[in-house]
Amino acid sequence: MKLIVNADDFGYSKGVNLGIVEAHTDGIVSSATMMMNMPGVEHAFRLAENHPSLGVGIHLVLTCGAPLEPNVPSLTDEYGAFRRGQAHLADVSAEEVEREFTAQLERFFRTGRRPSHIDSHHHVHAHEAILPVVLRLAERFRLPVRYPWVFGQQRGDHLPVPTTQGFSHHFYGDGLTADTLFGIVEGLSGCSSAEIMCHPAYLDEELLTGSSYARQRARELQILTSPEVREYIRDRKVQLVTFNDIG
Known about the structure:
It is a single chain. The chain is α/β, with parallel strands linked by helices. The chain has one domain (2-245): TIM Barrel (Alpha-Beta Barrel), CATH 3.20.20. It has helices spanning 14-25, 41-49, 94-109, 131-141, 178-187, 205-210, 215-224, 227-235; strands at residues 2-10, 31-34, 55-60, 118-120, 166-168, 193-198, 239-240. Strands 1, 2, 3, 4, 5, 6 and 7 form a 7-stranded parallel sheet that branches. α1 (14-25) runs parallel beside α2 (41-49) and α1 (14-25) packs parallel to α7. The longest helix is centred in the middle third of the chain and has 16 residues, at 94-109. The two termini are 14 Å apart.
């Protein structure tokens, strides 16, 4: 099986960035996705330059921080920040979403790099009101997309852009162990290609004050870099890849 272990939230903060890179160099993370509107993004790109084996995609954002585009009122609150949660997504302007996502993609391209793929913060790309916009942009820029698992389909074979056959968001939350990860890998073993989402990080002030999912990230980092996990992946001949390696 080709397995992508993708660390979300690259660019959120220096602590997140350093945790992701360590989970790559000393663990099983093979890919990460960049939040183009967050304060740690330039630091993340500098780290990525020094670690070319780490695939770097884009983590499209509608629910954290502030937009890059001006005048997107259906997406923002009274302070100009993105509105939290997803209850409002059914009623947002598709034109505003497309402008904002295009701005995030274009900021990525201006770094001189090409994203390996598209996914999103809080899985907004899989929302029924947002997915058509994402697929349009993925086709325009010829980029793979994280499989929109919330639709309940078992395979991604029929999407108009490349994706993996399997995806798991279950390496998340309290009480994670190496056995949690092993169970996820076993559950995906029937797929020729699959992705596991993760969020490793070192805790810093930005993360502790800005995210409700903080302490658990340090636990993820410990598991993803453990000798036990690295040995398990090696012994089962799982091929750790990036979205550049799937077609």
